[in-house]
């Protein structure tokens, strides 16, 4: 019943101003052309043998067959998973701890502003500062304290990328938790205190469950951020040492634009998009079941 | 317990601030001091590193690239605010387009390098300024932020204006625009930073010398002379300063708008 009644109702409400619909046209057209269309079009490119310079040659699913047998692909997949595993927990833990420690402090606003700054500043410039500061050979820090050789050890190189990623995005994580924290009524935690709960218990049984949506959001955002970390890889380690920090996104960039196999890179894009989607869905389901 | 929290917060804040302090310091280290390795010895600030940046011709050198990037990111910001403002108004007035923008919001543009390259090649826009501007002329994120702001504007206010015979132009320009100033500024700074911070994309689609962005320029320099950090740091500082100043000027609005957006 309601469904049939709806068009009339909305026409009555929006009829006279329906011309406002056209105002969305520029944005819709631009996003359709430069976001939706490439998103679909990548499927077509992925069936090509194509370098960008020569004419493309259709080769069906050959690219996908090769990906399945590509040791470099599996290696970068593994690197990406390891990187996510070492980056996500500290990202979430630090976001929650900082948001809690900042809540209601006189310096809350100033510190939040500082934490948010690295996400905005010039990425290339920030990478230069990190590089000159942390380079184990001629970095400024190396003149004062010994710096682990991240130019020779894969493990330390991943740690460096992790620290850089955390540095850039921790402010955002804190804002996410903080916004949620402010929405929790003070009466709840006060009531718990009156009932004799110590601060730790109040946190465990009142605050933490109520923070759950923010944590879910952080996991999803954090996963996306780690998948995008390949810019940091490009700027700081160039995939090295020994290709050990070649995450999926960097492998995609290298294959497409340094080696010039655009068709193969398109197929990689499709695989990465599917993996991301599957990963996000699995996480969402897992988190929902836990609740 | 409380002081532990203070120490933790200020410890993290110090670590986060460290690269900024270093960037500001390193830009003014005299070149001799870098080469002798005596970085933290007697510090005599020098502008020699900035002089090195000015050595090449203006437009091919650092300062020209900085101006070019400011113009490119500035135009993109204005375009995104314009298309976003109109689209947000359209949704506010009843266009059922919110799902469309939410879907496009979920598409990671970072992963679309290959098809975008193909599209721009097909449109003959590769290695032109348009490759840096057109794909970013609309952003679902900005539409969303501005729509969130418009939702807070009371319907009675718009209805009253409409009864007085106000058309779209008056509603948009004289009522919504001033009311959404804070959101527009915050969204503008975020849009500017997002475009300014593109690293790989401009390398791929705009590598020609005349349209290189400052990021590409710095990354090239870093690759050629990784050990020559005087000029590198000076370039990093000069390229970072516009954003830092922009942010400091509007920091309160940006953080507030952001938190507001997270609640919805």
UniProtKB/TrEMBL annotation, chain A:
SUPFAM superfamilies according to UniProt: MetI-like (SSF161098)
Keyword line: Cell membrane, Membrane, Transmembrane, Transmembrane helix, Transport
InterPro entries (UniProt xref): ABC_transporter_permease (IPR051393), MetI-like (IPR000515), MetI-like_sf (IPR035906)
Species: Meiothermus granaticius NBRC 107808
Domain of life: Bacteria
Ranges of residues in domain ABC transmembrane type-1: 77-283
GO cellular component: plasma membrane
Membrane-spanning residues: 20-40, 81-102, 114-134, 154-177, 214-236, 262-282
Name recorded for this polypeptide: Lactose transport system permease protein LacF
UniProt subcellular location: Cell membrane
Entry membrane topology: Multi-pass membrane protein
Family, as annotated: Belongs to the binding-protein-dependent transport system permease family.
GO biological process: transmembrane transport
Pfam family, one: BPD_transp_1
Automatic annotation (TrEMBL), chain B:
GO terms for cellular component: plasma membrane
GO biological process: transmembrane transport
InterPro entries: MetI-like, MetI-like_sf
Entry membrane topology: Multi-pass membrane protein
Domain ABC transmembrane type-1, chain residue ranges per copy: 66-250
Broad class of where this protein is predominantly found: membrane
Cell compartment(s), UniProt: Cell membrane
Similarity-based family: Belongs to the binding-protein-dependent transport system permease family.
Name of the molecule in the record: Lactose transport system permease protein LacG
Transmembrane regions: 7-28, 66-90, 97-117, 129-149, 229-250
Keywords tagged on the record: Cell membrane, Membrane, Transmembrane, Transmembrane helix, Transport
The UniProt record lists the keyword Magnesium: no
Pfam families membership: BPD_transp_1
Organism whose genome encodes this protein: Meiothermus granaticius NBRC 107808
